[in-house]
């Protein structure tokens, strides 16, 4: 397995390149701990010009309002993510319910600072192409709570997204989330004690690798949902991750789609197509190491495709799984099978090719409208010839150069 340690100084790259910046590029330094730190930091983000770096001084920033950046080609760089020595943006006293930092511009590099206890999302970017989240910590320090912000890092509606060496804890939806985007890499990060550790939703062409997803409700989710501007999520590779002990009770607010994720889920694929799950280490996931399901909720979107297609599970290491299935009827099914369900659970909708030498349980629900209580569970062995391997995701050389 290629995962050896988190690269807090990224060492893997596709291409090393020099990134040119305007000759007038400057560094705007802002100190922590001053009474007007919130205003000074927001002012720096407003006054920054393309090529500039906004440098966050070490210390704790007591912030009462969210921050925003809408200037292209800006770096926001802190002094570290650790308490006592880094740049800690503490939003415990935030007045509104918005995100801690909102980015709406392209070619932005966020690195080396922490965001704590936001009322809403930790760091959100929207329509921000070629954005890099690097060496960041986003945390709700009281641990799992329904009142925590929904997302830790939250890029949406973007092309070319790199999330590298990020730590997220306590999100009431997803710790690391990428939605309605394309050309995505999530690597060398830790997601723990979130509802969903890592989620790729309604997105195209994503590599999720060399991460640790542990002690969440569900470790890694690959979803496609109706009634969103971008649908048809596809070409997602989940590989060489450690997905273990995802045993945190679900604390998502009621009505949220992830509120239905069973505690003890390793990887959950819903209604996506062309997804490869390989080379991962699974252990101590009480419901299943891998779940493959259709979307089984009412919707009014005539263009939505609710079935999973071309899902390949191969070459993973499977530890203990299926011993505490947290879905309706799961305990009875496990008892009938000798105390545990097999590591791979498929609801029977769509198609899947499982090449691991492990058991598979099919609920034999042939379409996405059949209710779960009509399931007729059957242990099966799914074999077949997988489609051609999905291509490795390539990002612009300028993005990789930023993390060197």
What do the pLDDT scores average to? 91
The best one-word shape is elongated
CATH architecture identity? 3 Solenoid
How can the largest sheet be summarized? 19 strands, parallel
Q: Count the beta strands.
A: 31
Describe the structure.
Residues 148-294 form the Right handed beta helix domain. It holds the Pfam family Beta_helix. Residues 1-25 form the signal peptide. This is Right handed beta helix domain-containing protein. Keywords: Signal. The chain has 404 residues and is mainly β. It has a single domain (27-392), classed as Pectate Lyase C-like (3 Solenoid). The chain has 3 helices and 31 strands.
Question: Could you list some keywords that capture this structure?
Answer:
31 strands; disordered N terminus; Pectate Lyase C-like; twelve-stranded mixed beta sheet; Pectin_lyas_fold; mainly beta; SO_2930-like_dom; Right handed beta helix domain-containing protein; 404 residues; signal; elongated; PbH1
What topology emerges from the helices and strands here?
Elements: E1 27-30, H1 37-47, E2 53-56, E3 59-62, E4 67-69, E5 75-77, E6 87-90, E7 101-103, E8 109-116, E9 123-126, E10 131-139, E11 151-156, E12 159-169, E13 174-179, E14 182-187, E15 190-192, E16 196-201, E17 204-209, E18 212-214, E19 218-223, E20 234-239, E21 242-244, E22 265-270, E23 273-278, E24 281-283, E25 288-293, E26 309-314, E27 317-318, H2 330-336, E28 344-346, E29 352-354, E30 360-362, E31 378-380, H3 397-402
Parallel strand pairs: 1-2, 2-5, 3-6, 4-7, 5-8, 6-8, 7-9, 8-10, 9-11, 10-12, 11-13, 12-14, 12-15, 13-16, 14-17, 15-18, 16-19, 17-20, 18-21, 19-22, 20-23, 21-24, 22-25, 23-26, 24-27, 25-28, 26-29, 28-30
Antiparallel strand pairs: 30-31
